[in-house]
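Could someone model adenosine-5'-triphosphate with this protein?
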Amino acid sequence: MSEHNSTELPLEETVWTQKVSWIDKVPRSVGIAMVLGAFLFLWWFLSTSGLVPSIILPTPMETLDDLIFVTENVLRGDYIASSLWTTMRTIFFGYLLAIVIGFGLGVLVGETGFGERSVMPLLVGLDTMPKVAFAPLFVAWLGFGIASKVALATFIATFPIIVGTAAGMHSADQNARMLFQSMGASRWQTLWKMKLPTGLPQIFTGLKIGAVGVMAGAITGEFIGGGKGVGELVRLAATQLDTPRVFSLIIYLSVIGMLLYALVVWVQRWIVFWKKEQVLANP
Amino acid sequence: MHQAATAAHTSMHHSETVYELTNVGKTYGKDVVALENVSIALHKGSFSAVIGSSGCGKSTLLNIMAGLIPPSKGRVVLQDKPVLGPRDDIGMMFQQATLFPWRTTIENIVLPIEIRDGRTAAENAKSRAKELIELVGLKGFKDAYPSQLSGGMAQRASICRMLITDPAVLLLDEPFSAVDELTRDFMNMELQRICLDCNATTFLVTHSIPEAVILSDVVYIMAPRPGHVAEVVEIDLSRPRNLDMITTPRFSEIVHHIRARLDDEAGQ
Ligand SMILES: Nc1ncnc2c1ncn2[C@@H]1O[C@H](COP(=O)(O)OP(=O)(O)OP(=O)(O)O)[C@@H](O)[C@H]1O
Ligand SMILES: [Mg+2]
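Reply:
Sure, complex below.
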């Protein structure tokens, strides 16, 4: 067939390019710079045009000034530094507790019929409650110190870790179960050598949602229970209508949040090495 | 089929029975009768296949033989000991290779040893695993992760995993139905070579008549409702078999016979 045609057609190569829209070709760094630039411009425009009073929305420059002040304070090790330290300790202990409790209950719920039938309904019930409403209770029980904030942070971060772990335990397929059964594996071996490794991607999804929750819990705890953390500084600044300070503290908090998240992603990439691409695909 | 039966019988008469099922029945729940009066005897070094329509109880039979589910009736005896649960003298292979992505090929292969005897034993079994890797033609891939293996290569690795415990019987549930047809023909010939090499006693579940015939000494035709053995066909083609035999008149005669029998059973 082709021999017949080739005598009639010109012998050009039929090389052609697939169309890719420009928006899919923008390099990552340029794209990020563009979005950030547009955001800053919009912010600058809204705050300087007089459309929004400066008490509600400070200009980017005012915020930058304050951010520099805060940074100097932090570098000197002054009171903002110690507030950050307090909040970071709350987050650390809250997350650690949430991981231990969440993982333990997740395995119980995912692995045993008792957990699934008897513990899970209770957990679902607790999870649907507005957990922030427990904050005053934690203050009443544990006082105004760091413990009541850790409790709230743990309380909020634990549920996604339970759900992630329990879901992970169910992610092994029928073939893998039959294989382990046919090898005469004990329940413990099946758990450690098959179900848990198989479920690691889901467990890490739970850990990532938990990392966001632990931040929210720690700050909310500090709003409601006072103390020495950044949440208290934010509350104070807001009551004094010092919005640039509120903004720069929020920027500091989001940096902490991003670092925590990045740490989890890094650990995931290191442990779940066989699923590299998926780490980026489901952040 | 008459000459076929006598020929195969004389050649196999002196080899001992490794696996014996007598009047095995299985009822799921109260009234789903999946198997009734199934009697099967596997001789040492023989290759048997079971073929039948979907839902006639093939997987149920295999799972009973593997000790994964208990029978409701009958006797199941492997190497003179009743099968009362999973055993390490049974090797199993499924439709999917089911290699674990966090283990290298060789670590996947020694997994049954690790489960049975612990890590040190698994470490010691690696030299045997290397021999098996060479036997199935996976040389150079022992430290590769499963994501680097093709479907056929993954199934080869799972053959090694099945052989590492030196099982007395190999139970295969449609092992190559997930790979493409060219690979499948090739893998079947490889399977024959490996089984002959190890003098393995093998029992295969399949949906493909040509596959059953080219590989087996004995083919069990199963019929549904309730699942039972409708006919036992002994295949008198010479060993080792090769893919050219598929075009011989004898081969097509046997295939035709089995197909007619399956159609009969389906028509009832
Ligand atoms: N766990 C179970 N509970 C109840 N009934 C079952 C169960 N497993 C299988 N059955 C029934 O037993 C019969 C035989 O099933 P089985 O899976 O053994 O068939 P099969 O021959 O392997 O089919 P296929 O070729 O589709 O794999 C079917 O009617 C099925 O519905
Ligand atoms: Mg089946």
